[in-house]
Specification:
The chain has a 7-stranded mixed β-sheet with strand order 2-3-4-1-5-6-7, with helices on both faces. About 30% of the residues lie in helices and about 25% in strands. It is built from 5 helices and 7 strands, in the order E-H-E-E-E-H-E-H-E-H-E-H. It is an alpha/beta fold. The radius of gyration is 18 Å and the shape is globular. Helix 1 packs across helix 5.
């Protein structure tokens, strides 16, 4: 099926579109994840890192990184014929956080990407979504030279509630990244069901 058209004799399917944020610290793999799963050429707003930015851009642990997202990344993935996700990657650096409120408007949920070598870099994103009651999952991007930790240790280090899913992933791999996005949708739907049950 192509959007707007359908097989002969079948009515066209209008897909439900959902907005998902991909957040986390600088250099954690947000742009990579959006690019890995997007079925369209992703929109990127990357700029080269400059000498002028060195005092404010902490590149510790990501010394090989030469660009940074200054506004957002945007991609799209069709999970089912009737379900399409619009992905918005947030900028990771503190000086661009003013964009987050705009990007989070109307979002179903979020992925907070984490790098176990620099776990503290995702504290701000966790805090942001907790304060706004936006459902999120932690996607631990498994870098090749990063140590592996049990889920309980990561949960304790990030001070997460028991119901926040922690998923291991490789942001470069389409299948792995897609599983994380499915996890966000499922978690957000469970949250919505629980809220409806609490108010019934």
């Amino acid at each position: 099926m192509i959007f707007g058209r359908s097989e002969r004799g079948k009515p066209p399917v209008e897909p439900v579109t959902l907005k998902i944020l991909v957040a986390g610290g600088f250099g954690v793999g947000k742009t990579t994840l959006v690019g890995a799963v997007s079925e369209i050429r992703p929109l990127r707003t990357e700029e080269l890192l400059t000498e002028a930015g060195r005092p404010v851009d902490d590149t510790s642990g990501v010394e090989g990184k030469h660009t940074t997202t200054v506004a957002m990344d945007f991609g799209r993935i069709t999970l089912r014929e009737d379900l399409v996700l619009y992905l918005f990657g947030t900028p990771g650096q503190e000086r661009f956080w003013f964009m987050w409120d705009e990007l989070s408007e109307g979002s179903l949920g979020a992925v907070v990407l984490a790098d176990t070598r620099r776990l503290e870099d995702c504290f701000a994103a966790v805090d942001y979504f907790e304060r706004r009651s936006i459902p999120f999952v932690i996607g631990v991007n498994c870098f090749e030279d990063a140590a592996r930790y049990p889920e309980s240790a990561i949960r304790q280090a990030l001070d997460l509630d028991d119901d926040v899913p922690i998923l291991l992933c490789d942001a470069r791999d389409r299948t792995s990244a897609k599983e994380v996005l499915i996890g966000v949708v499922q978690h957000a739907m469970e949250n919505a069901t629980a809220r409806r049950g609490a108010t019934a």
